[in-house]
Design a protein that fits this description.
Bound molecules: NADPH dihydro-nicotinamide-adenine-dinucleotide phosphate
CATH superfamily of the largest domain: NAD(P)-binding Rossmann-like Domain
Radius of gyration: 19 Å
Distance between the termini: 53 Å
Number of domains: 2
Number of strands: 11
Oligomer: single chain
CATH class of the largest domain: Alpha Beta
Structural class: alpha/beta
Strand order of the largest sheet: 1-11-8-7-5-6
Mean pLDDT: 97
Shape: globular
Largest sheet: 6 strands, parallel
Order of helices and strands: EHEHEHEHHHEHEHEEEEHEH
Low-confidence stretches: none
CATH topology of the largest domain: Rossmann fold
Length: 286
Amino acid sequence: MANIIDGKAEAEKVRLETAAAVDELRRELGVAPGLATVLVGDDPASATYVRNKRRSCEKVGIQSLHHELPASASQAQIVDLVRGLNERPDAHGILVQLPLPAAIDSRAVLNAISPDKDVDGLHPISQGRLMAGEDGLRPCTPLGVMRLLDSVGADLKGARAVVVGRSVLVGKPVALLLLERHATVTICHSRTRDLAAEIGSADVLVAAVGVPEFVKGEWIRQGSIVIDVGINRREDGRLVGDVHFESAAARAAHITPVPGGVGPMTVAMLLSNTVAAARRLESRRS
Ligand code: NDP
């Protein structure tokens, strides 16, 4: 039976480190890091996500600067708000909660965020910096995946890593972060031939597919590390990942549960990114 990777405990460690980094920033530069959140419309799930992020900020000493616009807000209004936040010295990070209402071009809004404040790591410049191996803000979920791999001492150098999923949010950035750490990376997607064989070759498997319990235990290499990014609600109401947990846990050496694996890491890495952005911006100013 695999060791179950405790995402909640690791996220708590990240939060403690972040709180210490906030204190350090206050002492050294007299600055309190601030995260601006933008919520458009009245989607209850989005409102809950933003509320959780704001609460998490406050717990580690990050100031939360919250802005709400009605569902009827125009694209120009949202972009204007973002541009205003780009100019505010107390907003070191800017997070626009997705999805935006259907009439809004989300890309155009995300592109308006200053890359230096892009704590979600989704701006094309942040993505380009990741691709080029330059310093910059990386997307939160992929960072959380890497942190969980480090928490179990994964030796990534030369390891065979298979990422299932090629989204801009998860699959592609995870693959680049693994490559940066010298893994030999294969990215699989819906057109991949013989997915089971690809997965069977993986020392490290990252599943970001969005299909409940899609990856079967028998595909998984004995003794591998399995990181399940998926969050899916089954018809019976249970939350499950993209990997069939019980059968996979019988073969893997380490595996993340759902919930309680990658999920808690995402917000923790957002906090950590906000403090990193604040340090960079404030060091430039001082
Ligand atoms: P997307 O839907 O954007 O991407 C899914 C990827 O999976 C695509 O690249 C797609 O391939 C691939 N895929 C779909 N079906 C198959 C298949 N049958 N065989 C092989 N590959 C397939 O999803 P995201 O990357 O945004 O999210 C993935 C999962 O992670 C979701 O469950 C989501 O809820 C979860 N998630 C969790 C987060 C967290 O905080 N823990 C944060 C973000 C996401 P193709 O490109 O060919 O269509």
